[in-house]
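hey m, so remember when u said the tokens were messed up on ur end? i reran from scratch. heres the input so u can diff it against urs
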Amino acid sequence: MHNVEMFRDLQGEATEWRRYLHENPELDYRLHNTAKFVTEKLASFGINHIETGIAETGIVAMIQGQGGDGPTIGLRADMDALPIVEASHKPWSSKVPGQMHGCGHDGHTAMLLGAAKYLAKSRNFKGAVALIFQPAEEGALGGQKMVQEGIMDRFGISQVFGMHNSPGMDVGKFAICHGPIMAALDDFDIIVKGRGGHAAAPHRTIDPVVIAAQIIIGLQTLVSRNTSPIESLVLSVTKFNAAQAYNIIPDHVEMGGTVRTLQSDLRDLAERQILAAAQGIARGFGADVEFKYRRHDPVTFNSTEATNLATKAARNLVGAASVDDKIKPRMGSEDFAYMLEARPGAYIFLGNGPTANLHHPAYDFNDEALAYGIGYWVNLVDTVLAG
């Protein structure tokens, strides 16, 4: 097993890669320059089996070990950026107006490239490693699309692993848990249909603004009164569109929001009860609603064996005290969950230090974390595919 000092030399090179990617962000599936950069680096490491164009701009590269027959494990990094105007003021800030790597996918890609370079040279393991470079993690379901295009069967992947940086957690620390580690993501839209009119004569209207406000308050009982206090359900109304003038009561109000859960039965409950509450409140005031509910990422679920392997790999890198294997699940979502539905595996958090939060204009991946991420991937391969 390796300690982090063995990867300090790679950290310098990975920093150059990371900052180049940060300066040149691309969105969703439109990762043509990013995919070209990654493919060229992989080829330069002597990796001959590189398949591109998966889920449009995704890449899977195979490294065969020299230790004999064994399984194939998948290591995944996401590559896409966010439509945010950067405010980090770093010398390597985004050169693309309105786009930035605000979630650290530039760092994730650089860390997996660093591990690829090391593993391609050593090959001291059984079986094979499938390096998965995924597009469109930020809401466009790139992980689902790669699974639908058959990467698990096509490359014979038996287990799959992911990693994400975590602002606020010290560099050199890791965090993981068994079972659900991130929530399922759903969203909904409600159109409250009333009868508009002049704001000076509200008695002649069925005011959808007032009704929508009642619905927002009513929906909070799904969490406080319809769900067990020990179960996790987050419901947030985040969109509200009404009239654009001060003196108009509109015919309708559009509202929407997000639902986060850690259990599939709570998704069913939320879908039923949001409609029932909205419909009941609206009809009580003489209005009605139109309702749409969409299910996106499932729960990110860490299997027992893979979580134990991931924990062992991290502890061999940084010591037991720097790896928390009993963190509380986080209510954000991650489309790596689709890969974990297709194969057992584990998802781990890596400390990014006291940086701005993810998706914040001032966020930047901490280059000091690169050696830890590279080392984790290499130790994980050593742990799972011991030669």
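this time it looks ok to me. The chain is about 35% helix and 25% strand. if urs says something different then somethings off w ur setup not the seq
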